[in-house]
Amino acid sequence: MKKGFITAPAVAVFLLLVSGCARTGQDVMSLMPRPGFSAGWRWDFEPEIYTPDNLFEYINGEAEHYNDYDFVEMATASHARTDDELASLTIDIYDMGNPLNAFGIYSSHRRPELEFEPIGEEAIVSELDIRFYKGRFFVQLSAGSMDKVVTEAVREQAVSLASRIRPVEEPAELSFLPRSGRVPHTLQYLARGFMGQAAFERALRASYRVSSGKCSAFVVLRESDEDARHALDAFRESMRTQGQLTGEAAESNSVRLVAQTQYYGKITVQAHSRFVVGIVDYQEQAEADDLLATITASLD
Fold it and tell me: How many angstroms separate the CA atoms of 175 and 299, rounded?
């Protein structure tokens, strides 16, 4: 990755991209702050574009995770103080293709014990990093030092960048798991293989408080009722093969399965319309059944 003062030809290329004359990266690049966004700042290295084919060159070990969410492209650039090259900040802007995928990759970074602020739709904030999502974009800003001038610039640029991203309606999928009883900041969208089940792609999960403690709930998004039943059949076969299926009962137009697993504890799951709905790691079956009924009713 090239570092140092940006050259005049590179500036020309950047301005060409920002103007929209170039096809590749015009959206993410148009959001990137220009050099000298504030007095005393310059580019530390010229902006670069990464795609699904070469993202591993920038975040080796994590690129596959982003590609699971149908990552489109990202722009990255670093800014440094003119009076102190060690005082720098880096901005990464990911186009995730749609708002659900942007939320999904953002949600993979958050945990309830972290600090959050209303930047974009929501931001995870630490001393050195701010991560947020808005629209189809996931954005990460990182401070190169704890200098106040740097950390303040990171916050200012996060707020400014978020304000430039056009707002969109919240994906309908984020309402599939009810808010009542849900532990804040635990809702996630997982694009691949929830609970190690190949048939459980595109799943929403969250933690819930119940009388006996906590449990998790999930909704797997399928294309049709028949597709959901096939996914449930695949789960049944997986649990049966591993000797973990402990119960099976008819439920109106579906089947309710109960399993006891080593890694996920008790699981109750059933197909409902084009969804597979389940409760995981619970203590009392009656509480799991009640929560399952609440979720399936909200999907009607």
Answer: 9
